[in-house]
Every structure is written in C-alpha cells, then in structure tokens.
DNA sequence: CGAGCCATTTGATAAATATCAAGTCGTGCC
DNA sequence: GGCACGACTTGATATTTATCAAATGGCTCG
C-alpha cells in the first residue's frame, strides 16, 4: 500500500480518532490492490475477510436473487464498505464489482475486530459509523416504500443539486441504468420518469441534468430530512 | 421500573456483557411506563432522548411521508428499539405506536452514550447489535427490491414456519394489514397473494396459516440465507 | 474514419400493484 | 344477545411498473 494512502484513510471518520499506534498496526496488516473495470471482487455469501477501502475508482455494491440483480450502493473514494459483515464475521450480503479501474485497500477483518476490542476510541468511531449506515439504509427503504418511482427520481435530482451547492445543473455521477437500479426501477422506467418531470422543472441533456424550476420540482419531490438526510451531520454514509 | 424487569433486560445481547456496576447505573436512570393500545409514543423527527425496551405488549415502528404510511418493524418483548437514533443523538427516523397495551422501559440516551464511552464490553455489544440491525435492514431491502409481492409473502410464510420449528401450521403474529404494510404491499394485494398461493401449498383459515406443500412453497419463495437470514447467529434483530 | 458495441430512448404491450367500492365476517361492547 | 365497528375479502377498475422489441446515438477501438 502506498505511503500517500495512509493519510487519506486516516481522514475517514472511522479511523480518525484511533491511536496512531493502532492505526499503524492496522494498516501494516493491510495491502492495496488494483482491479480492472467490471471485476467482481466480492461475491455475496462468501466469508467477510477484509474491510475494503476505495482509494481510486468507483465500486458498485449489488445483490442478486434468482436471475435478478439490484444495485444497493455506489461507493467512491475515499470510503470503506462492508464493515458490518466484517464485524459480524458473517457472509457478505452484497457483491461488489468495479465500475471503473479501482485501487482498493484491504484491511483484514480479523485485525479490525481485534483493534476495536482494545481501542475505545476506535470502538466509538465504529459505533458511530454503523449507526450512520443503519440510518442511511432505513432512509433508503423509506423512500422505496413511500414514494413512487417518479417521486424518487425527483428527490434524487434535488438531492444531487444540493450536494453541488444547489446548482441548477449537474452531471449524473453514474450511469443511468445503475441509478435506475439503485432507485428500484428499470432503466426504461427511469427514462420515462425523467421525461415526465420535464413538466415539473427538469431538463436533460445526456448525462447533464438541468433544473429549470426548483419550486415545481420540490413540489413533486417532497424532500424530507428523515428520508433524504440532508443537513444531518455525519450521515452521508451508505454502506 | 419493576425489580423483575432488570434481569430480563440484562439478558439482552446489548446488555449482557457490560459490567454489573454500569448496568446498575444505566437502569437506575431508566424508568418504566405503561401505554394503552394505539398510542403514538414516538413521533418521527423528534429528538431521540430515550432508548426504548419493550417489556410487555407489541410496538409498531412506522414511517410516514405525505399522506402515506408504512410499517418498518414490529417489536415484541424483550427487545430494544431506536438504538441508532440515540447513538447519533439525531431525530427519530421512525414513529412508534403501541399495537396493544405495553410496558416500556425508557433508558436516557445521554446515559447510554456516556456508558459505552467508559465500558469497552458495552461498546462491543453495541457494535455487534448495530451491525446486526444494519444487516437486517439490508436483507429486508433486498427482499423488497428483488422479489415480487407474491414471493415476499411466500418467503414470509416459510420463515414463520421455520421459527415455529418447521411447523406446517402457525398463527400469524400480527394483523394482516400490518404484515402487508411491512412486506410493502396493500392489504388487498396481500389477501390476493395469499389466495394465489393456495395452488402452491398454502391454506388459510383466519389468522392461521397451513402449509400443505412445503416443496411447492419453497419453489415459489426461494428462501435465501442472504435475504431471509435464518441460521445466522445473532441476526434476529430488526431495529 | 468506420464498424460495432452498448447505453439510452421510445413505442407497444403485458403484468403487477393500487384504488375504490361493496360485501362478509368475526369480535368486543353495551 | 344484538349491535357496531373494524378487519378482511372480493370484485371492478385504474394506475404504475415491467417487459419486449426496435430505433437512436454516443463512444471506443481497430
């Protein structure tokens, strides 16, 4: 693992507060690996041996059942994923594949578990991280159960705008088919939902979204802090 | 709070491993309260001041958005709920109401947070609990996104059967309309889904479910450890 | 530059699910 | 016991969403 990786990882809320010594031990046991695009690096059901940290590239977390598949999250640098499985020493509930070429740091789950047993600050960070992740999934589930696909798209567009400083225009951060799957709909349905939002202040140009009428869009989206989670500190995590 | 409550709470995985002294401190600050049926005891959006523990009765966790409402979980004795909100000192993401008369022990969130800062064993239990809750929601989300409503009902029936020692017959543990909402469908749709499963080995008599053909039902349900979570130790929690 | 590939869009249609409206049934309360 | 209420069911219908099939269009790679 590169020298410049360590300070990046150290900045993560999960690792920020632990002792320097423990951080050193943990990262000494870790190693970095590069993966080409479209590689399935984690298969659901396998034992969780490593906490993964994306340093570069984009990772899709997805799950399959029978012939179906759904995107659970899209992870970007610098964030960790599949923490819960590592902690429980249980099988991964999700698979992971690279969307583009990635560099991933892998921290042995065994060392992780050993560390928060002895480092109270790390234990605290882990608690906080897990609670955030939990709340994040709950919010997403609420969105799935309470909103129609059109409303979910509207809410997503507005949220992205907020993340870009309330920009009226931004580029979608991932392929539409991934986004559609994440939002719980087919690509066709997503496409039509966006189109139907033209009458409510959304224009599209390829990957670019332009909000032409915030008020109208907000009326459709019905943003809610308890679903969309903006403005609540430390709750940006997704896995 | 009653004397006989303490040992019951102490048995929970969350409190099992902490020091006796800390447990005493925590429960001294706590108090029990009785609620009549159909009382909304927690409203989503309010600050999370107390960890709740159901001692008697049944509690529904639900969320609302616009005029819609959905059941997120149903909690029975003896379990805690809304741990994550307490930890993050953040607003509740879900509301809670009593299904029937309840006795609830309420532990101040402030004391909780103070305790796992000083008690490493309690911190460990909290980590484990949160990781389980997280995985539980992820599994439920997978079920919602990957299965049709009919398949969800089939899977639910089989899971309940397993929980009853693979009994061919059991009583539904909650009203059908609650179950329907929890499974992400309308009561009408639930009713029809059950009926349509008659041809796949499910019979109904009021609240009683009778499985007449396990093989056929399993073929529909496609039970999966990574969704239905059976057999994975310590992963029964839901909130 | 051109060919092919793949994501996206669009259209037509089907399936799943929700909604509305009665009607049935059981249960609790007077 | 009988009444009233609410849950559940059933039917008819509307809406939402998915599926299948066929363009379109951008992009990469030779």
UniProtKB/TrEMBL annotation, chains A, B:
Residues 147-215 form the HTH crp-type domain. InterPro entries: cNMP-bd_dom, cNMP-bd_dom_sf, Env_Response_Regulators, HTH_CRP, RmlC-like_jellyroll, WH-like_DNA-bd_sf, WH_DNA-bd_sf. GO terms for cellular component: cytosol. Transmembrane segments: none annotated. Keywords: DNA-binding, Transcription, Transcription regulation. The keyword Transcription regulation applies. Residues 14-133 form the Cyclic nucleotide-binding domain. This is CRP/FNR family transcriptional activator FtrB.
């Amino acid at each position: 693992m590169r020298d410049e990786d360590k300070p990046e990882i150290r900045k993560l809320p999960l690792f920020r507060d632990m002792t320097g010594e423990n951080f050193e031990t943990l990262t000494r046991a870790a190693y970095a690996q590069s993966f080409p695009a479209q590689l399935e690096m984690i298969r659901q059901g396998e034992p969780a041996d490593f906490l993964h940290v994306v340093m570069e590239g984009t990772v899709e977390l997805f799950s399959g059942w029978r012939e179906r598949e759904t995107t659970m999250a899209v992870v970007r640098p610098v964030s960790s994923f599949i923490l819960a499985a590592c902690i429980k020493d249980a099988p991964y509930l999700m698979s992971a594949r690279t969307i583009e070429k990635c560099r991933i740091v892998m921290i042995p789950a065994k060392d992780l578990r050993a560390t928060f047993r002895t480092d109270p600050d790390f234990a605290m960070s882990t608690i906080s991280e897990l609670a955030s992740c939990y709340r994040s999934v709950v919010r997403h589930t609420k969105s799935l159960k309470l909103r129609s696909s059109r409303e979910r798209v509207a809410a997503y567009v507005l949220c992205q705008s907020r993340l870009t400083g309330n920009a009226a225009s931004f580029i979608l951060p991932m392929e539409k088919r991934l986004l559609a799957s994440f939002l719980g709909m087919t690509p066709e349905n997503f496409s039509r939902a966006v189109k139907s939002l033209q009458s409510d202040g959304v224009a599209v140009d390829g990957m670019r979204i332009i909000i032409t009428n915030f008020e109208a869009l907000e009326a459709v989206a019905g943003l809610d802090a308890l679903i969309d989670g903006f403005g609540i500190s430390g709750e940006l995590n997704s896995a």
